[in-house]
Amino acid sequence: MRKVVVLQWIAMVALCSLLVVGCAKKPAVSESAAQQPVQETQVASEQPSGVAGQQVTESSVQDQVPADLEAVARQLQRIHFDFDQFTLSPEARDI
């Protein structure tokens, strides 16, 4: 009985020592990296370009979008693939 307790104690100490040794350590910061000067960045202070004095309203945007979508939709056609195939049929290639 006493041997079992001693073996459990040794196993516990060995396991704890492996955990302590196996944990990652923080890398040391080298002095050259710590003393590097920080470069200053210049921020451009430009105003956004655009038409001056023109206000964008929701109605003006809605008037433009449907016309563009309808033009694109007229050009699109459906292409059907054969079952379990990624190649186009000759009729679909002509489209």
How would you describe this structure to a colleague?
It is a single chain. 51% of the residues lie in helices and 0% in strands. It is mainly α. The chain starts with a helix and ends with a helix. The mean pLDDT is 74.
Helix content: 40-55%
SSE string, helix = H, strand = E?
Answer: HHHH
The geometry reads as elongated
Counting H and I runs of at least 4 residues, what is the number of helices?
4
Query: How large is the radius of gyration?
Result: 36 Å
The helix-and-strand class reads: mainly alpha
Number of beta strands: 0
Low-confidence stretches: none
Largest sheet: none
Straight-line N-to-C gap:
86 Å
> Oligomeric form of this entry?
single chain
Indicate the proportion of strand residues: under 5%
- In round numbers, the mean pLDDT is 74
How is the topology of this model organized?
Elements: H1 2-22, H2 31-34, H3 58-75, H4 90-94
Keywords:
mainly alpha; single chain; 4 helices; 51% helix; elongated; 95 residues
Write a compact overview of the structure shown.
With 95 residues, the chain is mainly alpha-helical. The chain is built from four helices and no strands.
